[in-house]
Amino acid sequence: MRAIGFIWGVGGIVALLMFAIVRLGAIALELNDFTLSIWQWGTLVAWFAYMVWAEGYKGFHKAFAPRVVVRARYLADNPRPLHVLLAPLFCMGYVHATPRRRIMSIGLTSMIVCFVLLVRLLPQPWRSIVDVGVVAGLMFGVASIFYYLLQLKQGGVTSLPVPADVPV
Q1: What count of Cα atoms within 13 Å lies in the side-chain half-sphere of residue 159?
Q2: CA dihedral sign, ordered 91, 101, 157, 62
Q3: Half-sphere exposure of residue 76, counting CA atoms within 13 Å on the CB side?
Q4: Which of 34, 39, 134, 138 is the most exposed, having the fewest neighbouring CB atoms within 10 Å of its CB?
Q5: CA distance 80 to 9
């Protein structure tokens, strides 16, 4: 049960992120159908760089990815049937989390949903320009999860820079 919770938690999140990458990647590839102006190219390059830094590095690499791995490790060490069943939600901080972590997770998800709904309203090529940056950030996030899995394997849970944020 320990390994199942760990694998289901991390694997479920990676699968969710990969689904988003594939789905948004298809929209981003629609840029091939457009001739971009200098202004649009500049926006694309700036947005790409910003999203790699803000979403990829600051959001995923520094916070989300290590927390997913730390919480998956906690779940492996302290398996409960319901937590294992809901392992991806557990690893994201929705289940068996401190009130602050749960509020942060729900708040972040709410912001992402609002952002997605707003981006869907953008005309092309702007929607594809936005999605190029989002896909880059998501790819950085998936790579970060694998990086922290390697860190866990090499140095144990103490080598990860965030707490599990579970109730005491």
Answers
A1: 10
A2: positive
A3: 15
A4: 39
A5: 13
In the chain, the amino acid numbered 122 is L
Q: Is the peptide bond before 66 cis (omega within 30 degrees of 0)?
A: no
Encoded tokens for 97: 């989390």
Residue 112's region, left for phi above 0, alpha for psi from -120 to 50, else beta, is: alpha
pLDDT in tens, the chain (168 residues): 789 999 999 999 999 999 999 999 999 999 999 999 999 999 999 999 999 999 999 999 999 999 999 999 999 999 999 999 999 999 999 999 999 999 999 999 999 999 999 999 999 999 999 999 999 999 999 999 999 999 999 887 677 888 999 998
34 φ/ψ angles, rounded to the nearest 5 degrees: -120, 150
